[in-house]
Automatic annotation (TrEMBL):
Biological process, per Gene Ontology: nucleoside phosphate metabolic process; ribose phosphate metabolic process
Protein's UniProt keywords contain Hydrolase: yes
The organism's taxonomic lineage, starting at the top: Bacteria, Pseudomonadati, Pseudomonadota, Betaproteobacteria, Burkholderiales
Protein name: GDP-mannose pyrophosphatase
Organism field: Pandoraea terrae
Family affiliation: Belongs to the Nudix hydrolase family. NudK subfamily.
Amino acid sequence: MTQSFQDDRHLVETRIDGETVYDGAFLTIKRDRVRLPDGKEATREYTTHPGAVMVIPLFDDGRVLMERQYRYPLARVMNELPAGKLDEAEGGLACAKRELLEETGYQATEWHYLTRIHPVISYSTEFIDIWLARGLTAGERKLDDGEFLEIFTLPATELLAWVRAGRVTDVKTIIGAFWLEKLLSNQWQPGERSPLR
């Protein structure tokens, strides 16, 4: 049975007032007082984030381009798909092209928008737009100052096995792996949705 949702007003929380708790170079932390649907008040703490992109770079031979990068909060090296934060007034495709080139040295002749995800809906405004990149050619990386990562290739058919084995635990990369599986099996087609930004 398909549920039709016409009116969400009975679920919406309304901001009364708030404050910026912390304003850093990368994250801003807010604390708001809100009115709940039943009229009571509550506090909501969350981070604001400008948004990001993730790229699934797929070679013609079925390999996918991956990265290994140390993630300080987890104190470990993570296996991930290339990704990065949007610069101010930068569109998603421009960001995807820039991040792929900067982090891997690769450029692509074919780009397909796949979807937008919200990885941490309970405490962040962050979204990540996922792009598929084909027609890859190698070039020179242009890593940001203080950025250290390695690139490697993996047969796309093995990426889900890495997820299952716990070798990939990054949520955006896991979602990318499931999208890739659907694309390679022709269950889903790229370009069925338009970018939201």
